[in-house]
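Hey, resending since the last one bounced:
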Amino acid sequence: MKLDIHKLLHLKTRSEKNEARRLRPEYKSIDTRSMTLVIKEGGLSATQLEKLQKVMKAISMILIYAFLLVMAIIVLVPFYWMIITSLKTNTEIRASQQTFWPEIVMWSNYVDVFDRFDFATYLTNTLIVGVISTLGTLVTTIFAAFAFARLQFKGKATFFALLLATMMIPGEMMVITNYITVSNFGWLSNQLGVFTAMIVPFWVSVFYIYLLRQNFLQIPNELYLASKVDGKTDWSYLWNVMVPLSMPTLISIFILKLMGAWNSYVWPNLVADKQEYRLITNGLRSSFSTTAGEPEYGLQMAATVLVTVPLLLLFIFFRKYIMKGVGRAGIKG
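The structure tokens again:
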């Protein structure tokens, strides 16, 4: 009998497969929908980690809001004290025991303010100085920021660094030298000269130049090169492209500068030696006193409230422009 080698190999292979099939474990289908995935990390399950994260998030939010509440109280308490002081009598204000609400509400203080405080003159002087000073600052800021952002000249980086270094010098250190300068120019002899002395020295602000320069740097340089290809001058490119694109920052500078001019006290009080030349902040300090020379704090606070309201409304209505302008100038892209 002849042996078929191929048949023997086939039989051997089939027997091995049957044996392997017999020894193979049987798998049953498992319903995974009812299963829960558990990930161990530091001895905590995923559910425990999720709960811990929620607790930590809640604690952090509580701490943040508590901090904001404390800061809000610190900011608002002086305003509240100013308002209640404006409604008190002078006797109650000078009492040793201070109250958090007036014993007698003196609404008449606000009526007396208009009788004894020359709002029209002080407001006119403040608006003249504030608006002209703000417009002049905008012009110098735009030109300087454009030069440092787009023009190429030798020593630009060094000069800009020196300009920024002047921000570390307190403004009070330059009061005496500025006063000597405007006095030598003869600006303190008449009303026009006094207004000029209150305006011109503050036409340049290094901080506003830096703020607008950062905003100008965000404008793609390809626009500048394209304008050069089209034959546009730097002057045309500045006013037709860069200024419109930087309008939020310019609005912010306008509002902040106007508020600064409105609140200025030291320099106007130094150069304006006559009552009719003074600004509204200087008028507040010198307008209310008794026959004995004692300050009438109730009337002063009432006038301060009336002076503060325009600035408060200005900030409320234009706060989004201030935030947008400062935010855009803070990122170079």
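The two ends are 93 Å apart (CA to CA).

Sorry for the duplicate.
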